[in-house]
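[recover] target loaded
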């Protein structure tokens, strides 16, 4: 696709790098010559120094042939004007970075096809990390309270080793929760069906109502019976109780536990003595 990006600040530069890496033909417009020269020198990107609200600059950037126009400047007023001009030039998809939620209606009025609220995205990410540290990523879907997320299934979870059809029929399992896919050890993604067995230590992608998350995560991440002594699962349980490891991803803990050497000591027995 041919993509015109207005604004190459911190976020704009990251977006441009991802677009180029994905093979999209990308053009950048920014008022800061130092920024445009750096992008050209480091990535060979076609750049234009000037205002993205200047029709002459937009003509130079061939905005008429753009498949997508992205407003990424640090001012809503500039993003709004760029969106309006992009629609005037007939760009079919116009995306806007919105800093102030009060601009949402104006963005709609000028024809932005997708509005990304910076505040909402950051707040949602922080809330997820605070309330549900077990979740890797969470995305709201639609206008209700449905969310799609990924989470690791504890190796000793009570649902580990059970087919999905049995799991969803368990007493107390939240209704309306949907298993979508699971990430295999090879890194491939497998679509989950009724006969798919949920493996302990695997990551699953699910959809659920947000109010059901605490109960659902209890099924997925809580321990069932105590792991066998000396097993990697026992090491994983022990590591999960270490306070300073609380923020470590489940997959990383599992890798750490897999390489651990487990030794049993009687109460009061010496474990380690420092060299004198």
């Amino acid at each position: 696709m041919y993509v015109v990006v207005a604004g190459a600040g911190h976020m704009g530069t990251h977006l441009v790098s991802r677009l180029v890496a994905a093979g999209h033909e990308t053009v950048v417009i920014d008022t800061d010559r130092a920024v445009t020269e750096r992008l050209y020198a480091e990535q060979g990107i076609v750049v234009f120094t000037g205002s993205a609200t200047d029709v002459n600059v937009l003509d130079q950037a061939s905005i008429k042939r753009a498949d997508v126009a992205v407003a990424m400047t640090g001012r809503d007023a500039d993003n709004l004007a760029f969106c309006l001009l992009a629609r005037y030039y007939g760009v079919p998809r116009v995306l806007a970075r919105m800093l102030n939620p009060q601009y949402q209606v104006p963005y709609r009025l000028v024809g932005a096809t997708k509005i990304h609220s910076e505040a909402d995205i950051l707040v949602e990410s922080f809330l997820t990390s605070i309330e549900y540290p077990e979740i890797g990523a969470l995305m709201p879907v639609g206008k209700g309270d449905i969310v799609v997320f990924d989470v690791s299934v504890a190796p000793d979870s009570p649902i580990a080793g059970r087919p999905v059809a049995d799991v969803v029929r368990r007493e107390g399992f939240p209704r309306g929760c949907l298993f979508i896919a699971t990430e295999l050890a090879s890194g491939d993604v497998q679509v989950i069906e009724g006969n798919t067995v949920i493996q302990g230590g695997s990551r699953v992608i699910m959809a659920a109502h947000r109010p059901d998350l605490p109960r659902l995560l209890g099924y997925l991440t809580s321990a069932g019976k105590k792991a066998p002594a000396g097993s990697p699962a026992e090491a994983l349980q022990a590591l999960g109780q270490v306070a300073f490891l609380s923020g470590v991803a489940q997959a990383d803990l599992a890798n750490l536990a897999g390489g651990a050497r487990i030794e049993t000591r009687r109460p009061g027995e010496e474990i380690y003595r420092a060299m004198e």
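[recover] notes: The domain at 2-117 is CATH 3.40.50.720 (Rossmann fold).
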